[in-house]
């Protein structure tokens, strides 16, 4: 099957460069990589153009104007120009293990989306270490959290995938997910009413469950390290909660303002 990797980004060239370098080292190269850009300045464009000259697979740049935090629309634009049967979505601060794509492909199963995990780096961690293959994170690395996510054990991963199959709602993270393209089309992608930080991942998962899909959790496989940064989440009630509640109340599966606007 053809595999697309979508990388979200916004004005953080050093992190994006590290992510692209980690994709270039994959044991199973994706058929294309699309950078879903939420309005970065021209430096990001130049970075992608430079990387594309020697990148080992197709590298595309999907860009929209900077009009606030519009992650849902940014992802939809990238999905709309993708060609993969299977789409892996990561954030532009997730540095991938060399077997990340291969692990996601092994975890893919019709009727399911795949939810991966991440190693958390702390403020004290030297992010430059992630730029070198011989300094890959391990269980005893300094300056990291969730150390269990440094362990790659494929046999245990396969067992946990089967055990996790269901409709678990907590722990959803758009920074490391796998979706069948046909499922994203059926759901009309991400709901673009979600503007500002958060809840778009909770919404698409809830709609996927209502559509009849289930979830598989990828643990001890599909490893990725999250480069530390301050969280952007707002304090108190999230304004996007209203859209999450609205779709639930109307039992929506395919959102009205989504992917097909850009097809």
Characteristic key phrases:
about 260 residues; alpha/beta; Spore Coat Polysaccharide Biosynthesis Protein SpsA, Chain A; seven-stranded mixed beta sheet; four-stranded mixed beta sheet; 11 strands; about 20% strand; globular
Q: What can you tell me about this protein's structure?
A:
The protein has 263 residues and is of the alpha/beta class. It has a single domain, classed as Spore Coat Polysaccharide Biosynthesis Protein SpsA, Chain A. The protein is built from 8 helices and 11 strands. A 7-stranded mixed beta sheet has the order 3-2-1-4-9-6-10, with helices on both faces. The chain has a 4-stranded mixed beta sheet with strand order 5-11-7-8. Strand 1, helix 1 and strand 2 form a beta-alpha-beta unit. Helix 1 runs parallel beside helix 2 and helix 7 runs parallel beside helix 8. The longest helix is centred in the first third of the chain and has 12 residues. The chain starts with a strand and ends in a 14-residue tail after the last helix.
